[in-house]
Amino acid sequence: GTDQPAYWDLSRTRIFGSVYPQYWMHTQTRTQFHDMYPGHQFLQTIQSLADNTWKDKRTRDRVGTDGLRIPKGDPRGDMPSGIRVLSAWRIESSEMWKRYRGFAERVAER
């Protein structure tokens, strides 16, 4: 078993079965909305996701303490070893959900 909240049960939140996921606050509305809810209960799950997918890889956007790109071999030891999740938000957005449903329906038609 997992410690996922019950509302992550995909059988209850089928893409095509209802307008919005059942656990959303706006399940019955037809007007546009964009709400954000603190997701502190998800911090450990998101941190675990970040920890389990992190790669020690030199990239263009990673800079050292001097503000310059980290050179090959990381001679100053500036390469980060991971990230720390400080906050999380659950977003309920009618517009984003509409775009997602359209994409999911196109994929399902293939």
Low-pLDDT stretches are 7-13
Give the spatial strand order of the biggest sheet. 1-2
Mean pLDDT across all residues, rounded?
82
Task: Give a short account of the largest sheet.
Answer: 2 strands, antiparallel
Find the structural class using helix and strand composition.
alpha+beta
Radius of gyration, taken over Cα atoms and rounded to an integer in Å:
20 Å
Instruction: Determine the fraction of residues in helical runs and give it as a percent range.
Output: 10-25%
So what's the overall shape? elongated
Beta-strand share of residues = 5-15%
Distinctive features:
110 residues, alpha+beta, two-stranded antiparallel sheet, elongated, single chain
Secondary-structure blueprint of this entry?
Layout: E1 34-38, H1 43-53, E2 89-93, H2 94-109
Antiparallel strand pairs: 1-2
Tell me about this structure.
With 110 residues, the protein is an alpha+beta fold. Helix content is 25%, strand content 9%. It is built from two helices and two strands. A two-stranded antiparallel sheet has the order 1-2. The longest helix is centred in the C-terminal third of the chain and has 16 residues. The chain is elongated. The two termini are 32 Å apart. About 6% of the residues have low confidence.
Short account of what is shown:
The chain is an alpha+beta fold and 110 residues long. 25% of the residues lie in helices and 9% in strands.
